[in-house]
Amino acid sequence: MKRAVPNPLPQGPQHYWKQMVAFTRQGGFTITEIHKASSVRARSTIKSYVLFCAEQGHIELVGERPTEKNRTAGIYKVCNLRAEAPVQRRPDFTGERGRRCQQLWTAMRALRTFTVRDLAIAAATDTVDISEPTARTYVFALSKAGYLVEIGRRKQRGVQAHWKLMPGFNTGPLCPATTKHGTVVFDRNLGRVVNPNASETTGRAA
């Protein structure tokens, strides 16, 4: 009989920030505490995000505490407990990955409805090709954030879904930036993180 595999701890900036806020309410947090509350193996991932938040003024260093190895660990607190999770945007977003997202977003705004295949074809250019898996990943990330809605119902398996950009989420010409796993969407036109659970209240289009 196979043992049940425990559910892994959440990860991603949204989760890190939620933990940082929770620990702040209890007096503060260290990088190690946020790491232990997440499923990310590399402590450097958490450290990078915490230091980014500190550099941008979202959190502040308020003290130190000794560690088990006779070292000192910085204690941080979130400055604004009601603020949304800061997004550590990749500096290479204007590179190849960024160009693909921009072309996909431009095509979404131009097409009334589309399948993933339609979108990949419409977004491709002579210099930058767009594969279906790339288009699918971006579509699913935006659908989770409420930007896209699946229209109609697929009557049989194997038929591609048709998608539509919601009018209220057509925020401007700059493509929304997504984290590697699509867990957070940063709208570059609005300059803020979009609620990743927005799609739960959006519903399906008729």
Keyword list:
single chain, 206 residues, alpha+beta, Arc Repressor Mutant, subunit A, three-stranded antiparallel β-sheet, two-stranded antiparallel sheet, 7 helices, 7 strands, elongated
Give the topology.
Blueprint: H1 13-25, H2 31-36, H3 43-55, E1 59-66, E2 72-78, H4 96-110, H5 116-123, H6 132-144, E3 148-151, E4 162-165, E5 177-178, E6 185-187, E7 192-194, H7 199-202
Antiparallel strand pairs: 1-2, 3-4, 5-6, 6-7
The percentage helix is 25-40%
Question: What would you report as the Rg, rounded to the nearest angstrom?
Answer: 20 Å
Counting helices, strands and paired strands, the structural category is alpha+beta
Q: Which CATH architecture of the largest domain? A: Orthogonal Bundle
Number of domains: 2
Low-confidence parts: 1-7, 198-206
Structural notes for this entry:
With 206 residues, the protein is α+β, with helices and mostly antiparallel strands. The chain has helices spanning 13-25, 31-36, 43-55, 96-110, 116-123, 132-144, 199-202; strands at 59-66, 72-78, 148-151, 162-165, 177-178, 185-187, 192-194. It is 35% helix and 15% strand. The strands form 3 sheets. Strands 5-6-7 form a 3-stranded antiparallel beta sheet, covered by helices on one side. It has a two-stranded antiparallel sheet with strand order 1-2. The longest helix is centred in the middle third of the chain and has 15 residues, at 96-110. It starts with 12 loop residues before the first helix and ends with a helix.
Give me a quick take on this structure.
The chain has helices at 13-25, 31-36, 43-55, 96-110, 116-123, 132-144, 199-202, and strands spanning 59-66, 72-78, 148-151, 162-165, 177-178, 185-187, 192-194.
